[in-house]
Amino acid sequence: MHIGIIGTINHDKITMPNGLQINDLGGILYNITVLADLIGEKDLLFPISQIGADYYDKMKELLALRAGVKTCGISISPKGTSKNEICYDSSMEKIERLTNHINPISFEQIEPNLGVDALLVNFIVGDDISLDTMRMIRTRFSGLLYLDVHNLCLGIDRKGFRQPRAPDNWQGWIEMFDIVQMNDVEAHLLAGRILNTIDDYIDFGEKLLPLGPSTLIITRGPRGSITVFRDNSKIESIVTPPERVPKMVDTTGCGDAFAAGFLVAYLTTKELNPAIQLGTKVATLNCSIAGMPNVGYFRHVL
């Protein structure tokens, strides 16, 4: 399998509740490091992103350790590296601030990589690509399109602070993807109301799928996930319980890990249940580390 990953590579400064600070590269690197542990020997990953010259060599060194990762789709940004500050409080709620906001990725940079089997679009910044660029991808790409809504639901104020909001024309984004992933906060924002019960989530999924996707996955952290999908003319659902987290350390990158696990299993089996199970396993494992994982950290879940 060949998988393309579109999104920003950040430099993250993470402050934990106990005052511990982690300075590391992040963004779609969380997807890539998990994917690289899960793919087979003949599989390839094609990240499509931008990074400043200040961190380009560090990024290359990090990815050189992972077999199957091709970095030809990563360009050097003239505006430097996207930088993000994340501060967690005692309840693990976070405040985010973007301190260097770079330009979106252009279609011209993406186009040479449209021969892959699947494209994962992960909104790290919120405007990683434009809607016009996504429309051009949709008309020229014949593989599986997977959206991680992620920070599409975070606005940016004048000081760079991130505030949750439902983006304008979010339906225009959703309609172009085959599989859509979001967390429960993002689901509340797009639904325009708090979703309290499992039936609430399923009802939201039943209203979203007619926009175009075949599958909606809503991850709910310690409450597991809910998947709503079309099965021929019927809409069905799968409620997945959480797995036990051995030790909760950091939730950064857990949604990215879920998407990576789901994609690898889904492209291999074409079935939802094993894809959800693998996504859940790697997302749970990701909670037990802070920052970038070591090579092979996720390999044993296969």
CATH architecture label name: 3-Layer(aba) Sandwich
Give the oligomeric state: single chain
Domain module tally: 1
> What is the ordering of alpha helices and beta strands?
EEEHEHEEEHEHEEEHEHHEEEHH
Level of helix content? 25-40%
Structural class: alpha/beta
Gross morphology is globular
Mean pLDDT: 94
Largest sheet: 9 strands, mixed
Radius of gyration: 18 Å
CATH class: Alpha Beta
Counting DSSP H or I runs of 4 or more residues, the number of helices is 9
Q: Report how far apart the termini are.
A: 16 Å
Poorly predicted parts: none
Approximately how much beta-strand content do the residues carry? 25-35%
CATH superfamily: Ribokinase
Strand order of the largest sheet: 5-4-1-8-9-12-13-14-15
CATH fold descriptor? UDP-N-acetylmuramoyl-L-alanine:D-glutamate ligase
Total count of strands: 15
